[in-house]
Amino acid sequence: MKKIGLFFGSFNPIHIGHLILANYILENSDMEELWFVVSPQNPFKNKKSLLKDHNRLDMVQVAVKNYPKMRVSNVEFSLPKPSYTIDTLTYLHEKHPDYSFALIMGEDNLDGLSKWKNSETLIKNNQIIVYPRNFEGEKKDNDYLQHENISLINAPVVEISATEIRNMIKDGKNVRPMLPPEVFEYLDGSSLYK
């Protein structure tokens, strides 16, 4: 069974924090590949700051092209909206029966996990790798971390926010150090996020 890590996100834009985390997971787990699953625009939300699906997909593709174990997936673009993680995983298991998938999520998502669609099935049938996040306020112990399929990894906490990057671009500030060089080139000279 080929082990694949799935890192879901809007990647609006993908930044070096995403790549540092993905690389850490690949180097410190039994994952053979890590797929960035680009989530489409939620039709029920007004997301004027969210770039078009193809722009975000293009940025992830250029960001990971020099990392042989990283891939980009647009699987959710063709699935019914809104996208639910359990439905995407079910689809991927059917399409790739010889692959084993692990879900990668931030520690901040654990608190709301019980509200996810079919969360008990999701946890029972999938490995979940949780990376640490800095919290506002006090950090709570989470019962989910006791589950055999959920493991908290000791990845570096990289505090870079895509929102902050978008705001800096809008304000004409230099974001070059926060982005993979290829993504900086993609955005530089364009009107994206301005």
From TrEMBL:
Pfam families: CTP_transf_like. The keyword GTP-binding does not apply. Residues 6-167 form the Cytidyltransferase-like domain. InterPro entries: Cyt_trans-like, NadD/NMNAT, Rossmann-like_a/b/a_fold. The keyword Nucleotidyltransferase applies. It comes from the Bacteria. GO terms for molecular function: ATP binding; nicotinate-nucleotide adenylyltransferase activity. Belongs to the NadD family. Catalyzes the reversible adenylation of nicotinate mononucleotide (NaMN) to nicotinic acid adenine dinucleotide (NaAD). HAMAP family: NaMN_adenylyltr. This is Probable nicotinate-nucleotide adenylyltransferase. The gene is nadD.
